Amino acid sequence: MAGGPTTAALVTAAAKAGGIGFLAAGYQSVDDLRSDIGAVRSAGTELFGVNLFITQYDDARSATTDVEIDGFARTLERIAMAAGLDGPAPASFTDNDYAGKIDYLCKNPVPLVSFTFGLPDAEIVRRLHDVGTEIAIMVTTVNDARDARERGADILIAPMLDTPLNQARSATKAIDAVRMGAAGVFQASPAYETLAEAALLVAGGS
Prior knowledge:
Distance between the termini: 10 Å
Low-confidence stretches: 196-206
Helix content: 40-55%
């Protein structure tokens, strides 16, 4: 989701295998994203997506977030000193140029953009829709799914581990997605195996 092994080459390989790959742009710069999109398109891949993190830093959260980051850094420093290691580098918040990547994708649209760790503003969804991009949003609760759909999500992504509780909840998540008029993308795990019969898309990984 953030970078690392999900390279342009992997996205291209997924497309050649009949899948839809997503470039992991969560922690990438705009320049890196531009380079990866260019590499995917140069390889002849047309259907692919870009995944972004919702890591916006607003004034309402700033004071609390700074205190939490500072407290966590001090804890790590104590642990490091006890182990005879150097302490962590000074911590600071970054949104990894979220707005810059949105602007770039609005000017250089891709078929799909997905969002993780939060919901994009309805205005961002509208801007991406205006340039022909479909929107996928990862949701973990019914409220998330409802809010995402109200903001214009085309696809709801529901990751779920195979546990007895999740097996009980899987059908509910599927029904909620369909009821809200969005496509459902579900993890290829036993919790969702029976949903294939309901003509829902089953996708691997989480």
